[in-house]
Write a structure and sequence with these properties.
heterodimer; A: about 300 residues; mainly alpha; about 65% helix; disordered N terminus; B: alpha/beta; Rossmann fold; three-stranded antiparallel sheet; 9 helices
Chain lengths: ~300, ~270
């Protein structure tokens, strides 16, 4: 730079004068750039991008293992190895299985269903923060990102479910009509996950530190939800106050896990489920889904800024 | 590649504005500019202290990047944004795209301007082919539109000139190749307002020629194009109007040749 910079505007009116600009904008139907759409408009935008949401989740899923030698085989191997580790620790070393019939199917179902929620929330927390480039470059309803990540986890879970079906058959659990209940249970859990993921995505976008905290929160939640042991058995063995047991049993993770066990394992009977379990499952999904969506939308124009 | 040409003026003969920037100030908050951040104790004290004190303690600095800028862009114009490094060109462009908040003033736009940055995010582990689909969907194109234009996007990028690269993961591409593919994807959509940040500087001579031609084509289809570049030649070749920003202020706004002459005098070329 060869010249003094603080010289005033060089040649008099180098910048032309303008009239009433907001009026001009209004006359031609221009809108304020980057303003938040209405809630219904937002839903419409999101629907218009549905193909992007599915393409993004499939792309993420494929990209995940594209560098590995075994490639997409890891989609199935990862959950199976996970289940094996938990079986070794809780089934063999600690002997949590005491009194739980069909312990391996019980455990594996719990681990897979929990992993679905856990990964959805983990990736949801980073959904905006790890895609700032995309958010800053393109305009699309930002809720596409957390929803897309949850959809990726759902796809991942479907691979796990295939492995689970094999495990169930190997351990002699009979095929039953109740297996069909898996579908509504998964839909409700997906809505719940997506809603909570949107809440976390908004919080994580503005406070990235949340991603460091989440593993601890999630681990606590996991142990409180009877993923690796039967809540009912624990309640019988210890003097757990009734209300604590109810809270544990009604917490959304436990509800979705037990619903899946009830659907798949014949020795897991309705007596182990809380009363009105479908109502509770639906209520959690509705609360998290709607609440999370509105909460996320409220900050739509702020994502990726600053 | 696009639909029919739209009118440049309305019934009364007034030129149709596409972007109205009305006395806009943009202020950046920069985290961790001072001491403090990084040291655990400083981070702790930041949490404990009150908010107004926090900004100073954390070394949050306010950078006044754009000052009182006003202009109106019309349909069919290609506008160059020039200025020395750090003069606020890219910041202004981001605000027009609705990606940065304005401190004062307002920005009105016709539809949603799209920022065609060299950093548009694609997934490097996926093949070029899948990235074309993904990028197109992300921009809001329908699946049919992408199918229709797929051939022309790939041909335009020239990725397949040296073998079948489009079916390889993007991580195997050279930086020039991926930049070319990104530009091709972004330019495949008909934007009402297209914002380009230095995109023309990438790729070889042949590709630069092609991108300039594509930008002219986009303009013909009634969009407005903004181009930020340090390449005076590509500004001259593609733009008919130039905004010169210096230290966040609009120093000159006029026909390309007039502004470029002053600018070159200023930079000493």
């Amino acid at each position: 730079m060869s010249q003094v910079l603080d010289a005033p505007h060089a040649a008099g009116p180098a910048v032309p004068d303008h009239g009433d600009l907001p009026a001009l904008a209004a006359r031609h139907g221009l809108t304020v750039s980057g303003a938040r759409p209405t809630l219904t408009g937002y839903v419409r935008q999101l629907w218009a991008r549905r193909h992007f949401i599915t393409a993004f989740s499939t792309a993420k899923l494929t990209a995940q293992y594209s560098q590995a030698k075994l490639g997409q085989l890891w989609q199935v191997l990862t959950p199976v190895l996970n289940a094996a580790v938990y079986f070794f620790i809780f089934g063999v070393l600690m002997g949590t299985s005491h009194g739980v019939p069909d312990f391996v199917p019980f455990l594996v179902t719990g681990v897979f269903v929990w992993t679905f929620t856990q990964s959805s929330l983990m990736t949801g927390t980073r959904a905006i923060a790890s895609n700032v480039g995309l958010v800053r470059a393109l305009h699309f309803p930002r809720a596409s990102l957390p929803i897309s990540y949850c959809l990726q986890q759902l796809q991942q879970l479907l691979f796990s479910m295939a492995a689970l079906a094999v495990i169930l058959l190997v351990f002699g659990v009979p095929v039953a009509w109740s297996w069909l209940l898996v579908v509504p249970a998964l839909i409700l859990q997906f809505v719940f996950n997506a809603g909570l993921a949107m809440v976390l995505a908004r919080l994580g976008a503005h406070t990235p530190d949340l991603a460091q905290l989440m593993p601890f929160v999630l681990r606590t939640w996991m142990y409180a939800s009877g993923v690796m042991f039967s809540l009912t058995q624990v309640a019988q063995r210890t003097d757990l106050p009734g209300w604590v047991f109810n809270v544990l049993q009604w917490n959304p993770a436990a509800v979705y896990i037990d619903l899946m066990r009830f659907a798949l394992i014949d020795s897991f009977t309705a007596s182990q489920l809380p009363d009105h379990v479908w109502l509770i499952a639906g209520g959690w999904a509705l609360l998290a889904g709607l609440g999370g969506f509105v909460f996320f939308w409220k900050a739509e124009e702020t994502y990726g800024r600053g | 590649m696009a639909e029919q040409r739209m009118d440049l003026a309305d019934a009364t003969g007034e030129r149709i504005p596409t972007v109205v920037v009305d006395h806009v100030d943009i202020v950046y908050k920069v985290n961790g500019a001072g001491g403090g951040r990084g040291a655990a104790t400083a981070a702790l004290s930041r949490i404990v202290r009150r908010k107004e004190k926090v900004e100073r303690a954390a070394g949050v600095r306010r950078v006044h990047a754009v000052k009182n800028v006003t202009f109106v862009a019309h349909r069919g114009e290609a506008i160059g944004l020039i200025g020395t490094n750090g003069s606020g060109k890219s910041t202004l462009l981001k605000a027009v795209a609705g990606l940065l908040p304005v401190e004062r003033g307002q920005i009105f736009t016709d539809g949603q301007p799209s920022l065609l940055g060299v950093n548009a995010a694609l997934m490097k582990d996926l093949t070029g082919e899948r990235n074309v689909h993904l990028g197109g969907l992300a921009m809001g194109m329908s699946r049919e539109q992408i199918r229709e234009r797929y051939r022309s996007i790939v041909d335009f990028s020239g990725i397949n000139e040296k073998g079948d690269f489009i079916t390889l993961p993007m991580r195997t591409y050279s930086s020039g190749m991926s930049a070319r593919l990104r530009f091709s994807i972004a330019a495949a959509k008909d934007h009402d307002v297209l914002l380009i940040d230095e995109a023309l500087a990438t790729g070889d001579k042949k590709f630069q020629k092609r991108s300039e031609a594509r930008i002219r084509e986009l303009r013909k289809h009634a969009g407005t194009v903004f181009l930020v570049s340090h390449n005076n030649k590509s500004i001259r070749d593609t733009c008919d109007r130039v905004l010169w920003l210096e230290r966040g202020e609009l120093r000159m706004d006029g026909p390309t040749e007039d502004v470029m002459r002053e600018y070159e005098k200023f930079t000493g070329k």
